[in-house]
Every structure is written in structure tokens, then in C-alpha cells.
Specification:
The complex is a heterodimer of chains A (248) and B (264). Chain A has 248 residues and is of the alpha/beta class. Chain A contains 8 helices and 10 strands. In chain A, the strands form 2 sheets. A 6-stranded mixed beta sheet of chain A has the order 6-7-8-3-9-10, with helices on both faces. The radius of gyration of chain A is 18 Å and the shape is globular. The longest helix of chain B has 39 residues, at 94-132. Chain B starts with a helix and ends with a helix. Chain B has 9 helices and no strands. Classes of the chains: A alpha/beta (248), B mainly alpha (264). The A-B interface holds A 45, 48-50, 74-75, 77-78, 80, 82, 84-86, 88-91, 101-102, 105-106 and B 129, 133-135, 137-138, 140-144.
Chain lengths: 248, 264
């Protein structure tokens, strides 16, 4: 279980997180929604240990990771898989090498085993036989799939998705969401996804949390969020211009 | 009481304080960056593949520019020094004059400036792009230390390749001087090389070696640092690349003067 309590972060005078509190249960898909530039990625970077909070704590299975550094933090990260917003694939490597990379660097598996596992993951994301291509040669949707394959190749317990469908057409958005759902059924990882793909995310989330003005204003199952009486949540999921959220 | 005049007076002091603190912070981060890289350089497992890739990138791919600039530097030196020495009837000293200028000063400095322009700028841009496309974050969350994986191979490759590039620059330059002084202007071959052996000693070669080695550290350190901490977007990378080249070039010249005055 991941518990985030009263997380604060400011960059200069800009207060991005102002007391985020959230619990993510083991094995669930938690999707954090909120406005662009509203601090969702900053929140995610705290969970990954890429940013340190000004105040508050993050507990992963009872361990406060905000106090961990170096090798201790790396041991937590070894349980993680991360799909970055732009994929963050290594340009200097082929698709296959990108997927095989974490296995080569972090395990003692033989070259044959690594090749088999990387190819298996590529097949699971629908890219079997495409390993020889370079990231620059493939489409945006394929890059996201490769990033998912790379994040899952070490069979992590917790997978983070930072807007995995941004910039894709509606068909690809659904395809990626179904892929995530399929892989989750197979591997039962805990997923934390940051997204603003409304209403598509309601089809795959176990629970949804809305981040607004630096705090979580509502958490609940997709149906509960859709029926929420909170005007901020309602305005956001309906995409209305008028309401408490200012369209700036 | 009206506090406005006091605040107006204090504003420049406040700005000065902020700038001083920012500068000190940046210098600390800059020094710590090298310290961390040196520390990780001695911790196995060593990234031999990445190191060889960097040697190829910084060294092998700079060969043509080093040979070309070395040849023309030697030729210009051969011509100008010959014309100057001929005024005093001392053309016989052309060989040592060319060799000493190249080995002690021009070889290390010009080859370092050339490699900065060719490989240093590309290095900053490459690491900067890795930063803005989250590839460095990806390494971090895979529990792979980016310092060890990206930066250490670059700095070690700089330490190895810069002296080699300088040696090549010196040799090509000396033959450039030979081409002009001996083949074109008629100085005897024996005089050109013979006098060189008399006047150039090991201390001169060591001076050139220490200079090139330290330039290797300076250029890779500055260029890797600027890329690693580059700002956002294409503009951030572009600014980091410009800063890296300018700062490396200035530091090369400052450090050259410093070493030139302390080394024998």
C-alpha cells in the first residue's frame, strides 16, 4: 500500500502541492485527474523520489521514502516500473535494446533469457518482431507501447503511468487503456496513473482522485466520481467553461 | 513611519545577496558534480562499453579536425617563424621554435578548443536532450545511477583522449612546419629536426601532457554539467550548449596561463 500524507511542494513563490493526502491500495488502478499544469506530474515525481517534498510523507509498504537516499531509495525503485509522458526511450538504442536494457543492467539473466523476455513483452504490447526499429522510426502510439513494455519487463509490483495517452487519437487512447487493463489482469501490479482522458479513464480505473489547487478534492470509485456533488469535479469531468475552475 | 525609502535602499543589497547566494550554490553544485563523478569512477562495475563509445565520439570522430588544424597551425608557424628568424639570420632555430610552440602551448590549447567545438557542444546537446526528454529520469527510476552511467564514461574518455589528440596535433603540426620550412623555403632537413632534438626536452613534453590532460577534465566536466542541468525545452538546451562552449574555452585559456606559470 502507498500512503501519501499532507504533501507540500513549492517552487519559489509557486505553491504546487498544498497538502496532498491519498492512499493507494495494493493491486488497484488509481488514476489521478486534474488540470494541465495542476501539479499531477510533480506529485508523481515525489512518489518516484525524483523530487523531495517541502513537508509531508510518502509511505510505501510502511517505509517513508522521503527520508531515503542513494542505495536505500534504489531498493524501493527496483519495485517500480515507470511509463513517462513522452516515453523517455533511449534514442541511441533500438526498440528491443530499450526493452532489454533494465534486464541487462539489473539482473543476472543470460543473453538468451533476456532476449526471450524482451521479445515476449514486445509481443504482449503488440510489437512482436519490431525490436530492430529505432525509437525515431516508430509512431507516437508505438513509442508508448514500447515504454509500457520496458516498464513491465522487470515485472514490477508498482507501475506509474504519467499521461500515457497524451497526444494520441481516440482509437489509440482506448487501445493503450485496454492494453494497460489486460496487463494489469495478467500481472496484478499496483498502478498509479496521472491522466486527463475523460471519460475514457472511468472504464479502467478502480478508483479516481481529483487533484485541484494542490490538494486532493475528491477520491472514489469511477461511478461515485461521476455522480460527485463537488462542483469542481463536475466542471472538470464535463469540461465546462463556467464554474469554480477558471479557464486560464 | 514610511518604510518605502528604507526598502528602496535595501533592494540592491537584497539583489546582491541573492545573486551571491545563487552563484555560490551553482559553484558548489559544479564542484560536487565533478567530485561525485570522480568518486563513481572507482566503483565497479565499470561501464566499459559506454567508455569506449565516448572515446570513439570524443576522440576518433575528432581526428579529421585535429589533423587539419594541426597541419595548418604548423604550416603557419613554419612560415611566420622562418620569416622572423631570417631577419636575424637564425633560420636554423625554426625546428625548435615550431616544436616548442606546439608542444608547450598551441598543441594542447588549440586541440582542446577544437574538440570543445566539435565534441563538447554535441555532448552538452545530447545530455541536455536526454534531460528534457526524461531519459535521465528514466535511468534514475530504473535504479541506475545516471552519474555512473552517463557522466563517468565521458570524463574518463576526456582524460584518455585529450592527451592523444594533442600528441597527434603536435606531430602533424611539426610536419606542417617541416613542409613549409624545409620543402618550400629550403631549410635543410637535418637542421630542422636536429636542432629540435637539442632544444626540446622531456619537461616540455610533460608540460604539454599535463595541460592536455587537465583540459580533457575541464571540457568534459563543463560540457557534461551544462547538459545535465540544462533548462527546459529547445531553448534551454541551446543556451546550455552555448554556455558550455564559452565557459570551456575561457577556462582552457585561464588554466593554460596558470599551468604555464607553475610548470617548468
Amino acid at each position: 500500500m502507498i500512503r501519501i500524507e499532507n504533501l507540500h511542494k513549492a517552487f519559489g513563490a509557486q505553491r504546487v502541492l498544498q497538502g496532498v493526502t491519498l492512499e493507494v491500495l495494493s493491486g488497484e488502478i488509481m488514476i489521478v485527474i486534474g488540470r494541465s499544469g495542476g501539479g499531477k506530474s510533480v506529485f508523481l515525481k515525489h512518489l518516484l523520489g525524483l523530487l523531495q517534498p517541502d513537508a509531508g510523507g510518502i509511505w510505501v509498504d510502511g517505509v517513508d521514502i522521503t527520508s531515503l537516499r542513494g542505495r536505500a531509495m534504489d531498493r524501493v525503485r527496483e519495485r517500480y516500473g515507470v511509463v513517462f509522458q513522452g516515453g523517455a526511450l533511449f534514442d541511441s538504442m533500438s526498440v528491443f535494446d530499450n526493452v532489454a536494457f533494465p534486464l541487462r543492467e539489473k539482473t543476472d539473466l543470460s543473453a538468451e533469457e533476456i532476449a526471450a523476455r524482451a521479445e515476449e513483452k514486445l509481443t504482449q504490447v503488440g510489437l512482436g518482431g519490431m525490436g530492430h526499429k529505432n525509437p525515431a522510426e516508430i509512431s507516437g502510439g508505438m513509442r508508448k507501447r514500447v515504454a509500457i513494455a520496458r516498464a513491465l519487463v522487470t515485472e514490477p509490483e508498482i507501475v506509474f503511468f504519467d499521461e500515457p495517452t497524451t497526444g494520441l487519437d481516440p482509437v489509440l487512447v482506448n487501445a493503450i487503456h485496454h492494453l494497460i487493463l489486460d496487463l494489469h489482469r495478467k500481472f496484478r501490479f499496483t498502478a498509479i496513473m496521472v491522466s486527463h482522458e475523460i471519460p475514457e479513464i472511468f472504464g479502467i480505473a478502480h478508483r479516481v482522485a481529483m487533484l485541484h489547487e494542490g490538494v486532493i478534492v475528491e477520491t472514489g470509485e469511477p461511478q461515485a466520481i461521476q455522480r460527485s456533488a463537488n462542483p469542481v469535479v463536475q466542471q472538470f469531468i464535463r469540461g465546462e467553461i463556467e464554474g469554480p475552475i477558471h479557464a486560464t | 513611519m514610511n518604510r518605502e525609502p528604507v526598502e528602496t535602499l535595501l533592494r540592491p543589497v537584497e539583489s546582491l545577496g541573492r545573486v551571491s547566494l545563487d552563484t555560490l550554490g551553482s559553484l558548489g553544485r559544479f564542484g560536487r558534480f565533478l567530485g561525485e563523478a570522480v568518486g563513481w569512477a572507482f566503483v565497479p562495475p565499470f561501464k566499459v562499453g559506454n567508455f569506449l563509445e565516448r572515446v570513439h565520439f570524443i576522440g576518433f570522430r575528432s581526428l579529421s579536425v585535429i589533423i587539419l588544424t594541426g597541419a595548418f597551425t604548423g604550416m603557419v608557424l613554419g612560415l611566420q617563424v622562418f620569416l622572423t628568424l631570417s631577419r636575424f639570420g637564425s633560420e636554423a632555430f625554426l625546428g625548435p621554435a615550431v616544436a616548442l610552440s606546439l608542444i608547450r602551448e598551441l598543441g594542447p590549447v588549440l586541440s582542446a578548443l577544437m574538440v570543445t567545438g566539435r565534441a563538447g557542444s554535441a555532448l552538452t546537446a545530447e545530455i541536455g536532450i536526454m534531460r528534457i526528454t526524461e531519459q535521465i529520469d528514466a535511468l534514475t527510476v530504473m535504479a541506475l545511477n545516471p552519474m555512473r552511467y552517463l557522466i563517468v564514461p565521458v570524463i574518463v574518455a576526456g582524460v584518455i583522449t585529450f592527451p592523444l589528440m594533442t600528441a597527434l596535433f603536435d606531430v602533424v603540426g611539426i610536419f606542417g612546419g617541416y613542409l613549409v620550412g624545409v620543402r618550400l623555403l629550403g631549410l635543410s632537413e637535418g637542421t630542422y629536426f636536429g636542432e629540435m632534438q637539442t632544444f626540446v626536452d622531456m619537461a616540455d613534453i610533460w608540460t604539454g601532457f599535463w595541460k592536455s590532460l587537465s583540459f580533457g577534465v575541464i571540457v568534459t566536466w563543463v560540457c557534461a554539467y551544462k547538459g545535465y542541468y540544462s533548462g527546459h525545452g529547445a531553448e534551454g538546451v541551446s543556451r546550455a550548449t552555448t554556455h558550455a562552449v564559452v565557459l570551456s574555452s575561457v577556462l582552457i585559456l585561464v588554466w593554460d596561463y596558470f599551468l604555464g606559470s607553475v610548470l617548468p
